[in-house]
Sequence to fold (148 residues):
Amino acid sequence: MSHRIRCYTLFDITQTGILNRSKPTEDDVQEWIQKRNTQCNFDTILQVISLRSQPDNVKVPIRFEMEESDLNRFGFLFENSETSPAYCWRFDFEVHHSSVFENGVMPFGALYKDCEGVPMINCPTQISGVTSFLDITAELQNIYFEAL
Fold:
């Protein structure tokens, strides 16, 4: 039996298919760098998940504009700007045994522990104030998981 899990993050994890680090053939180098960086962020989160379980049926990440209630799920130091919208990214995946992420206290406790401090790449499309690493602290939490 498969267990469906949803990952939310403040990091831009747009899946672009830019997988290499060689010099771009595109005219707009900055656009290529942005695409490469967002793909790297997505790959990094998948690699953290893969430390304990093989994610199956991984859905393409989607970006959505956050409401105040969505922002409250992240660190309490993040604020919604009135001048620009705040975005969040999410994707779904399945694992065969969700218990591999348990730590005896929380259902995803071991997964959160694996995420803590993993370097990420900040992109201009993200909310301001996001650290350059995955953070699970109450103040600056920028990633969370939920069972579906």
User: Anything to note?
Assistant: The helical segments are 29-49, 68-71, 109-115. The first strand starts at residue 3 and ends at 9. The chain has one domain: 3-147.
